[in-house]
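Hi team,

Filling in the usual template for the complex we talked about on Friday. All components are listed, including any nucleic acid strands or ligand strings, so the model treats them as one assembly.

SUBMITTER: L.P.
PURPOSE: interface mapping
COMPONENTS: two
RESIDUES: 950
SEQUENCES:
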Amino acid sequence: MANTLGYGGMTNHLGDMQNSKVILIMGANPAVNHPVGMQHILKGKENGAKIISIDPRYTKTSAHADLFARIRTGTDIAFLYGMIRYIVKNNLHDKQYLDERVFDWESIVVEAEQYTPDVVANVCGCTAEKFLEVVKLFAENSPGCLIWNQGWTQHTIGTSNTRLGPIMQMFLGNIGKVGGGCNILRGHDNVQGASDMANLSDILPGYYPINEGSWKYYSGQWQVDYEWLKGRFKTKDMMEKKGFSLSTWPWGVIDDENAANNAGTPLKALICIGNGISTITMTHKTKEALDKLDLVVFIDPYVNDAAVITDRTDNMFLLPAASQVESSGSVAATNRSYQWRSQVVKPLYEAKEDHDILFEFAKRLGFYEEFTRSLKNGKPSYEWPEDATREFNRAIKTIGLQGVTPERMKRQQENWALFDPLTLKGSGVVEGEYYGLPWPCWSDKHPGSPIMYRTDVSVMEGGMGFRAGWTDKGPDGKPVVVAEKNGQTLLALNEPAGSRFKGGHLEITADNIESFGITLTAEEKEKVKGKNWKNDNTYILVNKALEAGLCPYGNGKARARAWDWADQLPKHREPLHSFRQDLVAKYPTFEDKKDHYRTNIRYASEQNKQKWVEDFPINVVTGRIVEHMGTGTETRASKYLAELAGEMYAQIHPTLAKKYGIDDGDMIWVYGTGEGKIKVKARYSHSVAETDIFLPQNFSGLWSGKSLVDKYPKGTAPYALGENSNQITSYGYDIVTSCPETKCTLARIEKA
Amino acid sequence: MSRMKFYCDDYRCIDCNGCVVACKEAHEIPVGVNRRRVITINEGIEGKQKSLSVACMHCSDAPCQKVCPTDCFYIRTDGIVLHDKDKCIGCGYCLYACPFGAPQFGHEGIFGVKGVMDKCTFCAGGPDETLSESEFEHYGQNRIAEGKIPMCASMCSTKALIAGDASEVDKIYEYRMAKRGDTTSLKPYGWEAYNNGK
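RESULT (copied from the run log):
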C-alpha cells in the first residue's frame, strides 16, 4: 500500500466506518480478530451501510454481512480486477479523481479487460451472478470502505493484493474520503507502532531506507559517530543490506547456500523478544533451525512455545519480561493513533521491562553509553519512557511524529471523554487535536490526520495529497523529478484546500521551497542548506510549508504502476501449491528469487516440482480463533480461555468428511506438503467449503501426536495444548516483503 | 424504579465470549461453572447463524423461586433475583425449572457431588454484608452497590449485551430498532424469528 498511496498505514479510522454506506471485508474476519472494531462496523450497518464479506469461509463476520461470497484462497486479485472491469464498463468510475490523482490508471483498465465475470467465476470459484451482486452493491453505494487483514498479506502475491485493493478504491474515488478508505485492521496491540519503530529488517525507524544517507542521519540523531556505527557491521554492504526476516531466518541457519547472502556465515544466534515464532509457516523448519543454532534466547512473560519445540539441551535462555500492565509509554493503534499507557504495577518477581533487558544487553556488550546518549540528549540522565518518546519525536520526520509528544498524549489520556468517536475531534482542553494525534502529525500545533489523503480539508486540518516521489528513477529512467509517461507527470493536478501553491509539487527541500511562493530569511536559508523536510532538524522547512498550506512530503499522484517491481501491475498468480493445477500454466508464479531477505527463495521451481494437488487434495485455510492470540502463549495460559477453547481441531465439511469416513469428533492425521504432520480432532462445520479444512493457528505444545508438556519448566505449562497448525503449512513467501504463505496450503488427510 | 434487566442484541452479538471471560475474571468463578454463556445456532449456515449471550434473566415471575424447597431465593425491589447459599441444599430443582439453564452446580469435591447452586447475581452480590469479604467469596463482586453495571455488559465488545434499568435498556433497544428499520425481529427471542429470515 505504501507503494501505491505513499504510506502503508490504515487510511481512515474505526469510528469513521460508521460513516460508510457500504463496507467490503475481504481477507479479514474482524468479529474474531478485532471484536471492538466490529462494533463500529455493526453501528455502520445500523446507519444503513451494507456489509459484504468475501472469504473462503463463512466466518463470524460473514454471519453479520448483508452479502457473502465464498472464494478460493489466493484469488482476490482476479476478483478485484473483475470489479474494476465492471466499474469502468458501467461508467461507475470517478474519472476526474483518477486523472487528477492517479498515475497510469489506464494500464489497470487494460489489464482488467481479461477478467470477465466468467473468468472471475472460474478462478475464484464463486458464481458470476454472486460476483456481479457484490460489485454492484459496492460500486453503486458511496462512500465505500475496504477492510483487509492477513488474509491478503500472507500470500506469495500478498503485496499485489494490497496494491490492487487501494487501486480499486481509487477507481471509485474512495480514498481520501470520509466513510471510504482502506482500513487494514492490525491484529494486535501496537503492530503499527512496531513497524513505525522499525521492528523490521529492511528499514530504519520511521521507514527511512537502510542506505548510507539514512545511517548518517541516524548517527546524528543518536549522537554517535557514523564511522563507529559502521564499525559495528562486518562490512558497509552488510550495514545497508536487508536482514533476514521473521519468516526467512530459519533458512539462514539450516541452508548453507544462504551463508553467501550473509557475509559468508550462517546465522549463529537467535534472540526472540515477544514473538510467537511458531505462527510462521513450516514450524518443523523452525525447529530444525532452533536445534542447530549456537545460542537461543527467549524474552517473554510466558514460556515461548518454541522453547519446548526445540530439542536443544544447552545454551538456551528464558528471560522473564514484564507484561503490558507492568510497563508504560506510547502504543500505536491500528489507525496510526498514539495513546499513552500507564504502569499499573511494578514488574513482579524477577521480570524486567523490555527496555531494561535491552539496556542490560547493551551494558554487557559495551555500548550502553552510546545506546542511551540521545535519550539523555545533553542532560545528565534520562526519564523513561518520556525521553524515548522525545527521541522519536525528533528523529521520525517521515511519518510526522514530531507532534506526538508525551505531554499531548498524557493530556489526551486524561480527557478521553472530550473526543468525538465519529470524527476523533477533541473539545475543551484538547480542542484542536484529533484523538491519538494520528500520524502524520507535523508539529506540536498540528492536530494529526485521522483520514489520510483528504484534499477537501487543509493540511493544518489533517489534509494531504498523495506522496510525491517513489524511487530515484521514474519509469522513463529519468530522475523522478521529471518522471512522466505519455505526458502524465507524477504530480497531482489538484491540491489540498487552502494550499497557497496550486497543483502538485515535489517534496519540500531547501532548494525548491522558494519556488512554491515561500520566502526564507538569509539566516533561515543558511540553517536549512542542503536539507529537506525529512532531515531538517530545525523544522523550518516543515513549518514554512505548513504555513503555506503545503504538505511537507509534496503533492503527488498515487501510482497504479510500480515500475520498479517484479509485477509492475498487480497480476493474479496461482499459489505455489495450487488447488487448481489446470490454472497454473495460465497464471504461473514468479521466477525463483535469489537473496530475498538474504535467502534464496523458490517460486517456479517449487510450483513445478510436482502436481501437488494430486497427492495433497485438500485445500487448507488457517486463521485465528477469537479466544486465542498468536501462538496462544499468553491466552492458553488463561484457565478461562483454555476452558472456552482448549483443544486443537480441524473444521471439516460433513460432505468431505463422509468421503474419508470421518465422523464428527474422530481424530485425523493431516499431512503437509513439507515433512510435517499433525493429529487433530475433526469437527464438522458448514463454515468451510466442501474442498477445504480450517485449522486454528493458535495452538502449540503437541508435536505430531506427542505431548511436549514435560519440556516446560515446572509449573509453566499452559492449560491448553494442541498441535501447531504451521507444522503442515506450505512453503512460500511474498515476492516483496517475504511474508509467509499461510493462507494457501495443500494437505492430505486420513483417519487416525 | 423499574426492574434491572439484561438484553442481548442478536444483531450485534459476535460470539466473542468477552462477556463470559469478564464474568469469570470478575467473580473468580471456578472452571466448569458458567454464570454466562454464548450460544451460537446454525453455525456456518448462510443467513441463519445467530449468537446470543445468556445468563440468569432475573425473571419477574422466577420459576427457580417457585420450585425451591428451602425458599432460598429472594427478589430485590430492583428486580434482581438472588439466592442464599447458606439455605441452598443443592437439590437442582431450580435447574430443571429454569428455561435458560442459568443455575450452575460445581462438580468439584471428592465424590463429585453437587455443591450449592451458583448463578449470575447481576453483579449485585448476595445476602451477606454488602461489599464484605464473605459476600465476595460466596457471590462475587457487588458492582451494583458501587453504582456500576454488571461486568459482562460493561466489557461487551460490540455493546450487544446491555444491562441496567429496564426503561433505559428499552430506550437503547428502541433506538436501534428504529435505526435498523424492518431488519429488527419483532420476536427477538423466539425460534420462529429465524425461520422467516427475520
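MY TAKE: Chain A touches chain B at residues 31-32, 35-36, 38-39, 42, 45-47, 58, 60-64, 68, 626-627, 638-641, 643-644, 685-688 (CB under 8 Å). The domain at 2-184 of chain A is CATH 3.40.228.10 (Dimethylsulfoxide Reductase; domain 2).

Thanks, L.
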